[in-house]
Model the fold of this input.
Amino acid sequence: MGNQQVTVHPIGGACMARDGSPETGVTTHAG
Done:
């Protein structure tokens, strides 16, 4: 995973964003 941030979840996580933008991750400016 390198330097990617992931969510912590009992059954897995999701990549927050590979470049810090909502277009490449699962979150937006609203969370």
Summary: The two ends are 21 Å apart (CA to CA). The chain has one domain: 1-31.
